């Protein structure tokens, strides 16, 4: 029995990125041997086991062949005779088809390290076309690694276009399409995912039908959104540019979480682009500053002249007999002019507080930055 670390963990380690999930392939073992070693079996289509201590996934080396349509139409074969190279060959991209043994040696039969160095996303074999989900995964990786300079290999891009033209992507379930799309929205350059679908004329996988939309303009809007906010729902809504027909198609075709639907409706109803949001934010901020200035002037006029010399009168945390006495006289003066509830009943104070809440909310949503 030999155990190898495989897939994304090896790729990310070679790129110097944090490794979050670790997957292992076990060569030369059987189901009985894994159970006898204390592993717990999970998975229905092929045997995957959880380590008794770490809970990490260990899968028996396997091969696969196309037995039906879609990304689930595969028949798997696993036995102690399946080699590591055979297992790696079934993977989608060369950068994901590397393994590491217990001594730290890299096993790279398909040129994954060379493609990492060249910043290239390339398919392992012609079997790539057997699984349409790999098209979306490829675009998601292109979005995720865009900051590192990765590009899709020409031959791999051509395969994806062939699959899209053949209607293979229509076999994907809406749930799987949305899973990949949402992951892409959380990446560094989500526009590469959506623009890739548009360039290969595969946007129907998201909308279910042809929609008249300026995808280039949408990609530019998503680029701007990604630079301003990490909120995937906000990014997704801004990508639609308030196109009512597109929004209706997305909500009908995809199993969107409630927050995404709310953001789509919000943008459609408000109809503002980023410039409008920023202009609104600047106007609100200017109003807030003006109100604060007026409030300070109003308070200053009511502080007895003998107390204005105290530098800490405005500091509620400062303690001292002189400041406390001055503060009490100031509060008495304010109440005399405003009533028992004092400054909190001031119209300027109420407006100040409400605008502050609005600006705080807008800031959390990523629309306003100052």
Automatic annotation (TrEMBL):
Question: Which one of the record's GO molecular function terms can you name?
Answer: metal ion binding
Residues of the Poly A polymerase head domain: 3-122
For this protein, the record's PANTHER family field holds:
MULTIFUNCTIONAL CCA PROTEIN (PTHR47545:SF1)
Q: Does the keyword Translocase apply?
A: no
Pfam families attached to this UniProt entry: PolyA_pol, PolyA_pol_RNAbd
Start and end residues of each tRNA nucleotidyltransferase/poly(A) polymerase RNA and SrmB- binding domain:
149-206
Q: Do you know which InterPro entries this protein is assigned to?
A: NT_sf, PolA_pol_head_dom, PolyA_RNA-bd, tRNA_CCA-adding_enzyme
Which family, according to UniProt? Belongs to the tRNA nucleotidyltransferase/poly(A) polymerase family.
The coenzyme or cofactor needed here is:
Mg(2+)
Signal peptide interval: none
Domain of life of the organism encoding this protein: Bacteria
- Listed name of the protein: Multifunctional CCA protein
Keyword list (alphabetical) reads: ATP-binding, Magnesium, Metal-binding, Nucleotide-binding, Nucleotidyltransferase, RNA repair, RNA-binding, Transferase, tRNA processing
Q: Which CDD domains match?
A: NT_ClassII-CCAase (cd05398)
Q: Where are the transmembrane segments?
A: none
């Amino acid at each position: 029995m030999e155990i190898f670390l495989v897939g994304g963990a090896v790729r990310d380690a070679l790129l110097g990125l944090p490794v979050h999930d670790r997957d292992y392939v076990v060569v030369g073992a059987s189901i009985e041997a894994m159970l006898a070693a204390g592993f717990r079996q999970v998975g229905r289509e092929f045997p995957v086991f959880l380590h008794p201590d770490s809970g990490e996934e260990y899968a028996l080396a396997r091969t696969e062949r196309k037995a039906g349509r879609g990304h689930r139409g595969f028949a798997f074969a696993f036995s102690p005779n399946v080699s590591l190279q055979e297992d790696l060959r079934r993977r989608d991209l060369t950068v994901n088809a590397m393994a590491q043994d217990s001594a730290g040696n890299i096993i790279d039969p398909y040129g994954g390290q060379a493609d990492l160095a060249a910043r290239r996303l390339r398919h392992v074999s012609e079997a790539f076309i057997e699984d349409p989900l790999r098209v979306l995964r490829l675009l998601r990786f292109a979005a995720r690694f865009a900051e590192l300079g990765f590009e899709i290999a020409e031959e791999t891009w051509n395969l994806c276009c062939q699959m899209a033209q053949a209607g293979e992507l229509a076999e994907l379930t809406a749930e799987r399409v949305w899973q990949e799309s949402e992951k892409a929205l959380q990446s560094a350059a989500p526009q590469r995912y959506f623009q890739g679908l548009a360039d290969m004329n595969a946007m129907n996988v998201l909308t279910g039908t042809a929609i008249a939309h300026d995808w280039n303009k949408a990609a530019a809007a998503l680029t701007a959104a990604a630079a301003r906010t990490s909120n995937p729902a906000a990014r997704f809504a801004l990508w639609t540019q308030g196109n009512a027909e597109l929004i209706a198609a997305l909500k009908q075709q995809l199993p969107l979480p409630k927050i995404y639907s709310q953001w789509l409706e919000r943008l459609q109803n408000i109809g503002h682009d980023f410039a409008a949001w920023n202009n609104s934010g600047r106007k609100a901020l200017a109003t807030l500053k003006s109100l604060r200035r007026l409030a300070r002037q109003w308070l200053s006029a009511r502080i007895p002249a003998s107390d204005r010399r105290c530098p800490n009168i405005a500091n509620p945390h400062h303690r001292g007999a002189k400041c406390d006495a001055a503060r009490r006289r100031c509060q008495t003066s304010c109440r005399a002019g405003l009533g028992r509830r004092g400054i909190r009943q001031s119209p300027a104070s109420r407006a100040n507080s409400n605008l502050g809440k609005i600006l705080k909310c807008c800031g959390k949503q990523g629309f306003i930055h100052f």
